[in-house]
Amino acid sequence: MSMLEVNNLKKIYQTRFGGNAVQALTNVSFSVEQGEYLAIMGESGSGKTTLLNILAALDRPTSGEVLLNGRNITAIPDREICAFRRDNLGFVFQDFNLLDTFSVQDNIFLPLVLAQKPFAEMRARLQPIAEKLRIEDILQKFPYEISGGQKQRAAVARALITHPQLVLADEPTGALDSRATDELLQLLGEINDDGQTILMVTHSTKAASHARRVLFIKDGEVFHQLYRANMSEQAMFAKISDTLTRLQTEGERHE
Amino acid sequence: MNRGFYPRLAARNLKTNRQFYIPYLLALAGTAAAFYILCALAGARDLPNQLRYQYLSMFLFIGLFVVGLFAVIFLLYSNSFLMKRRARELGLYNVLGMDKRNLSAMLFWETLYAALIGIPGGIALGIVLQKLMTMLLFHLMGYSGGFSFYVSGLGAAVTAGVFFAILLLALLRNLLRIRMQNPVALLHGGETGEREPKTRWFLTALGVLSLGAGYFIAVTAKDALEALSLYFIAVFLVIIGTYCLFTSVSIFILKALRKNKRYYYQTQHFISVSGMLYRMKRNAVGLANICILSTMVLVMVSATLSLYLGTNDAASSRCPADVCAIVRYDPGASDPFQPDKMLAALQAGVKKQGLALKSARGLRFLRLSAAWQDGVYLSGGETSLCALTAADYEVLTGTRVSPGAGEVYVSDSCPAQDTLRLRFELSGAGSRPAERQYAVAGRINSSVGLGESAAVSSDDVFLILPDGAALDDLWQAQHGALGEYGFDMRYEGLLDLIGTDDEKIACAAALSDPDYIGVTGSGDVGTQSAFSHDTQSGKSYESGVSVGEWSSYQTACLAENVREMYAVNGGFLFLGIFLGIVFMLGMVLIIYYKQVAEGFEDRARFQIMRQVGLPSREIRRSVNGQILVVFFAPLLVAAVHAAFDCRLIVMLLTLFQLQNVTLTLLCTAGTLVCFAALYAAVYAMTAKVYYKLVN
């Protein structure tokens, strides 16, 4: 059985006063295996963010289901949803979403503190992650004192510290320069090699080329998917570019 | 750009920023109205030009000065808040191609509009409220004559001048601010990353020390005069302490909490402590301002209120009967003063006035100042000793004590144990010291009303001597040693009458003339009351019955004292309430602005926490707690300040003849309760703004 199964997901946004309905997701189905590294690509307005929000249990679909290890997360009652998200999912955002009022270490501890773990356990969990992400030196600093790349690595540490089933990354390289981007993508690859399942939403070809599989969505539907298999990153990059071009041109043909 | 561009742009800016500008304009109008009202009242033409009203214009000028100073500080504060909030907007205009001169023109027009709306509006509001305030003032002062309504042209002009000047100052500050900054800084003005507050050891220590010192003074001041001389030092120390408390001590405590890992890394503490650190950093000065304003309101209102409510008590401790006749005399004279004849003459005088007598009594006493040193009272010092006979003591209090010859009853506050020694001595050559020694036969409760003589201090130590001879002997002893520096022997005739206040006042005035009551003698003659003395000196009266020699003769009237003291205390209370309202107004605005600022700051933080997995319910609970602490800490600290201040105020009020401690405590507690209720109401109203911004 797959770790994550998404079946016939549909989402329609109704404007407040019953105006025009907007169909953000038409019919999306896919699955993610344990230990997989999946990238979802698409243009602005293709429904990527809606999809991610539903996977993150931040939003509910109009119809369809999302099964995480067999459990339908769209049916989890509201009062459990925060704890569920905390225990099972890790998040990495484009603009880091670190809290200015906490040091880097405290930002990373935040989900553990919310889960009421003892301090000694927090320290023990942080140690290997900080080492891996090379942020040991900046743990006592504050977000406004460190670079974007460092902030994003801190955010990744925060996502990993709960040992989540699935890490959801929303444009993680969107606010980084190219050097920091390379570094982060490499780290994500290494984390994936250690067995962490990652699902990344992006429209950066470069970011997507690091994934094992790339899913393209367009107008609320899965349009195409690519497996990397044994391809090199460069080859994958070229292939993704081709697919994106096709996505564009075919889109024009439809209109 | 055509000519009407800036005025139109400025008008539109005021409209779009109305969330900030409406409160600002209200504050401007409110302070201008308060200023105008005080101006108009200070120049009130229909108050009679009597002595007891002349204090009023002095109070009002003090009030005017306070309101003016408050307006300057407060409007500049609001203005800088507004400009900080608008930094981004101004930066955008700059980037879009308005240079600094254009921006200045825009700001000029905005200020002009604010002035043209706020200042005339404030004066108009002041004129509307002026009548109400005049009624309140006259009522509190017990002034019963009618008053006419008038618009004070001078008051309006002065108000307009002062407030235009304040706004001009604010505009200059804004222009300077724009000149100093580049467009990018302006554009990002609202969102520069905030540094973690530093622990400032020096300020923390200074805060703890000065607050401690201020409280120490409040707790240890021994008497009214010491309280008066140290009061403003204590206030100053507490103000410094309050600023340090909010800016540094709070940070120090929060950081200490953060160091405690076991405490800090718990869900509710984690978010609250770190959130509070930044909140305190941003709001410390504002909160200290709120705290100090609150304390001022509390102290002012409670002190003036207890003074006002205690007026009757204070007046009767000055003048314990409807009419008091006060005679100073020399017991050693060849023709000694005869109290009984004097009392008879006074009674005859009352009859001549056509008034009925309820009671008439008299007492003699000798009042000395001395210092307690090595088991002896040494003449000249800060303690007042008051000696009287057992017979007079019984008349006065209804309590009989019977000291034998060479014995004395003393107040329970007297430090002497078995024997009481008094020593009279002048320093320098040729001194002839004298001493008297008495066995202490027993103790009395010292809260005895002793006419005008009890006025200054409640700490008088009373000595009850067996008879008039013993009293005269004591006088002789001190007179022999101190000569012209000695103390007066006094007689007070206390008459209670049946009649209206006006009749009693007229009677007291008539009785003050020795010719009228038909007694002979020579010396200073006159009437005295709370704030006035009317004396003729050195005249001889030959045409009456001889009552012996006396050196001065005066009358005082309770009703007159009550009227004068109401006139003064009413003026005080009016000023207390009036300034209280103005300060409250300022506080409301600061709280409102703080809520708005907090709302904007918290919006982003809320979102992140929700994404990281903190349930909204939890966030709201934590933030609620923080906001409550932020807004109620000043109230709490103000209440503590007021509680410490209470002791000083009780002592200071004795300078106004108010001895009623319970009344002062009740007034303070009552004011505190009312104030806390008002404060909570203000908080509840402004909190809505906050939640609207956050959600």
How would the blueprint of this fold be written?
The complex is a heterodimer of chains A (255) and B (695).
Chain A: E1 4-14, E2 21-32, E3 37-41, H1 48-55, E4 63-68, E5 71-72, H2 78-88, E6 89-92, H3 104-114, H4 119-133, H5 148-160, E7 166-170, H6 178-193, E8 197-202, H7 205-208, E9 213-218, E10 221-227, H8 233-254
Parallel strand pairs in A: 3-8, 3-9, 6-7, 7-8
Antiparallel strand pairs in A: 1-2, 1-4, 4-5, 9-10
Chain B: H1 5-16, H2 18-42, H3 51-85, H4 87-95, H5 100-141, H6 153-180, H7 183-187, H8 201-220, H9 224-259, H10 261-264, H11 267-309, H12 311-318, E1 323-329, H13 339-352, E2 356-373, E3 376-379, E4 383-389, H14 390-397, E5 407-411, E6 419-424, E7 434-444, E8 461-465, H15 468-482, E9 489-498, H16 501-511, H17 514-517, E10 521-529, E11 532-541, E12 552-557, H18 558-612, H19 616-654, H20 661-694
Parallel strand pairs in B: 3-6, 4-8, 5-7, 10-12
Antiparallel strand pairs in B: 1-9, 1-12, 2-3, 2-4, 2-9, 5-8, 6-7, 10-11
Number of strands of chain A: 10
Helix content range of chain B: 55-70%
Strand order of the largest sheet of chain B: 2-3-6-7-5-8-4
Helix content of chain A: 25-40%
Radius of gyration of chain B: 33 Å
Calculate Rg of chain A over CA atoms.
19 Å
Output mean pLDDT of chain B: 84
Describe the structure.
Chain A has 255 residues and is of the alpha/beta class. Chain A is built from eight helices and ten strands. Chain A has helices at 48-55, 78-88, 104-114, 119-133, 148-160, 178-193, 205-208, 233-254, and strands at 4-14, 21-32, 37-41, 63-68, 71-72, 89-92, 166-170, 197-202, 213-218, 221-227. In chain A, β9 (213-218) and β10 (221-227) form a beta hairpin. Chain A is globular and about 50 Å long. Chain B is α/β, with parallel strands linked by helices. Chain B folds into three domains: 1-192, no CATH class; 197-318 and 560-695, no CATH class; 319-559, no CATH class. Chain B contains 20 helices and twelve strands. In chain B, α3 (51-85) runs parallel beside α6, α11 runs parallel beside α19 (616-654) and α18 packs parallel to α20 (661-694). The longest helix of chain B has 55 residues, at 558-612. The relative contact order of chain B is 0.12. Classes of the chains: A alpha/beta (255), B alpha/beta (695). The A-B interface holds A 58, 79, 82-83, 85-86, 91, 93, 97-102, 106, 109-111, 113-114, 116, 119, 122, 142-144, 158 and B 193-196, 261-262, 265-267, 270, 274-275, 277-278, 605, 608-609, 611-615, 618.
